[in-house]
Amino acid sequence: MRLMLLTILGCSQDLVSFLGESADDNHIIEIKNVVANFTTDVIGSCAFGLEINSMKNPDSEFHRMGNKVFQPTFLTRALRSLGLIFRPILNLVQPPIARKDVNDFFLRIVKETMFYREKNKVVRDDFLQLLIQLKSKGKVDEDFVSCKDDRHLTNAETVFSSNEGEDEPLCRFTMGKYEFVESHGITRHPHIKVDYHLRRDWEMTDTLLASQCLVFFLAVFETSSTTISCCLHELTVNPDFQEKLRKEVDTFLTKHGGQITYEALQELKYMDAVVNETLRNYPPVGSLARFCTKDYKIPGTNVNIDKETSVFIPVHAIHHDPRYYPEPEKFDPERFSDENIKIRPMFTYLPFGEGPMICIGLRFGLMQVKVGLTALLSKYKFSVSEKMSIPVTFNPISFITLWPRDIHLKISHRDR
After folding, report:
1. What kind of architecture, by CATH, is found in domain 2-413?
2. Which ranges in 295-411 belong to alpha helices (H)?
3. Pairing state between β 408-413 and 28-30
4. pLDDT, tens digit, for every residue of 318-349?
5. Which of 31, 84, 291, 306 lies 20 to 30 A from 270 at CA?
6. Gene3D superfamilies from the entry (predicted)?
């Protein structure tokens, strides 16, 4: 994760440079597409080992195929919608996550990258390299990694991919040294050992490996760009919050001599609150679907969930429930102060899901968002434009993730 940070920092500087000319003339920019170029470059490099350079080439094949992932055909959307209501439809038809041309593209990219690395003995610190090691050895031992102040991972095991109903996941990483505290937060040892294991009865084929890269892409690409864009929208509408966050960023950069490290990012407490409030207000996935694999009685109730029952968790509704978040439509980072977090019930904040199927891109996505915001706020000021829609409007036919319409902001240099 730390080594991937260097790649993200490089992409963030490309983002800052790209916006410089617009800031010179106080131009109005459509920030969503610009940030999407940033996240495209990041995920292209960190997951697939590719230099996309979307700032100069926004119409690259990788970018176009990435967008297609989130634009399924009408038939696919219809089948998946029906499948949510009547699960046997999904089992019978099994509509693909992405179009065939998209699947073929990502499979080709992964195969070509693997061939090049093996032929030229190239080793990179990225997600694909981890999977390549997993394929060749069946196990990857990672060095100790920082896990300070990580309140989202509440389960000792997370899976890369699995078929629902199977007793054992396809690929598992197990984290040691953890303990539960309080009612909402989790305290952990500052360092945890992470071991990656491949199931013995599975072969890591090229297709399977490519599918894991695609899952990682799905978890990080659109969700991160939407979060950054919606966050900048709220900071623009609420300039006091923008100024407070900018002061924290300035203090942070001064303290560390302008250098950003993985550990140092954990010090940005107000940014954590701002990002968390953005994810509360605009959860990337509005609802979560789960499948009950065995009969279960909810503790403390008379409610029984039968085996093979589909369960839907309305994330957006929970995040906007006034019992947990008074005035839920109001943007208020103080909801995520340490004091307020402690008094809120567990499982009332679910932007990444929870438990064994928690989002694989959680840490990476948050790191990408924080680096992007730090780079932008350290150089630029954002203000309301006449083309800006308040509140943010969204594409109603987006199926996989929340998809905001154009977000037009006025950008200027801080010292002008």
Report:
1. Orthogonal Bundle (1.10)
2. 315-319, 338-343, 362-379
3. antiparallel
4. 999 999 999 999 999 999 999 999 999 989 99
5. 31
6. Cytochrome P450
